[in-house]
UniProtKB/TrEMBL annotation:
Similarity-based family: Belongs to the Nth/MutY family.
Tagged with keyword Iron-sulfur: yes
UniProt xrefs under SMART domains: ENDO3c, FES
Record-annotated HhH-GPD domain positions: 37-188
Protein name: Adenine DNA glycosylase
Annotated organism of origin: Nocardioides panacihumi
PANTHER family assigned to the protein according to its UniProt record, in alphabetical order: ADENINE DNA GLYCOSYLASE (PTHR42944:SF1)
Segments passing through the bilayer: none
Organism lineage string: Bacteria, Bacillati, Actinomycetota, Actinomycetes, Propionibacteriales
Keywords in alphabetical order: 4Fe-4S, DNA damage, DNA repair, Glycosidase, Hydrolase, Iron, Iron-sulfur, Metal-binding
Top EC group: hydrolase
DNA sequence: TAGGCGTGGGT
DNA sequence: TACCCAAGCCT
C-alpha cells in the first residue's frame, strides 16, 4: 500500500457520501440499476428514482414481468429514456439467459443491452468485488491530473490512459474500494470546473499541482446544441406520453412543438426507437 | 468514430 | 445570460 493509496482510502473513509447502492445490503441488481441511472446523470437526481424503482422492482424478474413502457414511465425526468428501455431489455435477458441472476463477469455484463465498458467494470467491481479498471469521467479526470499532470483527459479513453490506471489499481481485494474512492474524490473535490485543491488529500502528490495547474490544451471540446434540436422536441413529446394515463391524441403532441416537419420526424424516431407506440390512427402511448 | 441522445443545476 | 457539465452507450 503506497502513500497515494493510503491517502485516498483514508479520505474516502472520512468523506464518502452515504448512497443506498453502496450499502452492504445493496444487491448486484441494485448496483446495476444505479449505474444505468447514473450514466450522464447527477447523483442527487438519481436518488429518489432509484429508491422508488427498487421498491417496485427489487429483482430483474420483477421488472421483466412488466411492459417496457412502465420502465419508461418510472424513469421520469432522468433523461435519455432509452436507458430505461435498455435496462428493461437487460432484465429480460438476465431472466432468459442467466436464470434471473445478474451475471458477475465483465464479459457477461458487457453482452447485455445498455452496458458498455464502464458499466460492465463498475457492476463487476462494485456488485461482485471483482478486479477491473473502472474508467468513468471522474476517475479519468483525477488520474489525468494526479498522474499525467493534465487538467482534463482526452476526449475518449486511450490505451496509455488505461495502462496508467492499471498501474495504480490494487492487486488485492481493495481494488473496488480504490475505484469508488477515486470516483468520489473526482465528484466532490477534483471537480471539472473549480477543483478544491485545498481540500485534496493527494495535492502534495499531484503532477498537475506540481506543474502549476496548466490549462487544458488538447483537442477542442464542443458543447452539445440543445435549443430547437430534435432532442428537445423528443423530450417534449415523451413528457406528454409519460404524464398521460393512457393513449394521447395526435393533437396533444402537436401542441408542444410548432414545427410540423421536425415534430413528425421526432415522433417517427421515438416510434422507431421503441420509446413510443401507435395504438390507433391518431393515438399514441408508451410502449406496451 | 463522430455525432445523436434528455434534463436540470451550477457558475 | 449562456454556456458547462453530470458514474456513457450505440451506430
Amino acid at each position: 500500500m503506497t502513500d497515494l493509496h493510503t491517502a485516498v482510502l483514508d479520505w474516502y473513509d472520512a468523506h464518502q457520501r452515504d448512497l443506498p447502492w453502496r450499502r452492504p445490503e445493496a444487491t448486484p441488481w441494485g448496483v446495476m440499476v444505479s449505474e444505468f441511472m447514473l450514466q450522464q446523470t447527477p447523483v442527487v437526481r438519481v436518488l429518489p428514482v432509484w429508491e422508488a424503482w427498487m421498491e417496485r422492482w427489487p429483482t430483474p424478474g420483477a421488472l421483466a414481468a412488466e411492459p417496457s413502457g412502465e420502465a419508461v414511465r418510472a424513469w421520469g425526468r432522468l433523461g435519455y429514456p432509452r436507458r430505461a428501455l435498455r435496462l428493461h431489455a437487460a432484465a429480460t435477458a438476465i431472466v432468459e439467459q442467466h436464470g434471473g441472476h445478474v451475471p458477475s463477469s465483465y464479459d457477461g455484463l458487457l453482452a447485455l443491452p445498455g452496458i458498455g465498458d464502464y458499466t460492465a467494470a463498475a457492476v463487476a467491481s462494485f456488485g461482485f468485488g471483482r478486479r477491473h479498471v473502472v474508467l468513468d469521467t471522474n476517475v479519468r479526470r483525477v488520474l489525468a491530473r494526479l498522474l499525467a499532470g493534465q487538467e482534463l483527459p482526452a476526449p475518449s479513453v486511450t490505451k496509455a490512459e488505461r495502462a496508467l490506471a492499471e498501474t495504480v489499481l490494487p492487486h488485492d481485494d481493495s481494488a473496488p474500494v480504490w475505484s469508488v474512492a477515486v470516483m468520489e474524490l473526482g465528484a466532490l473535490v477534483c471537480t471539472a470546473a473549480s477543483p478544491r485543491c485545498d481540500a485534496c488529500p493527494v495535492a502534495r502528490l499531484c503532477a498537475w499541482q506540481e506543474a502549476g495547474r496548466p490549462a487544458y490544451s488538447g483537442p477542442e471540446r464542443k458543447a452539445q446544441a440543445w435549443a430547437g434540436t430534435d432532442r428537445q422536441c423528443r423530450g417534449r413529446l415523451m413528457a406528454v406520453l409519460r404524464d398521460a394515463d393512457g393513449p394521447v391524441h395526435r393533437t396533444a403532441l402537436e401542441a408542444v412543438w410548432d414545427k410540423p416537419a421536425q415534430r413528425d420526424r421526432s415522433l417517427a424516431g421515438l416510434l422507431e426507437d421503441g420509446l413510443a407506440s401507435q395504438v390507433g390512427p391518431d393515438t399514441f402511448a408508451l410502449p406496451g
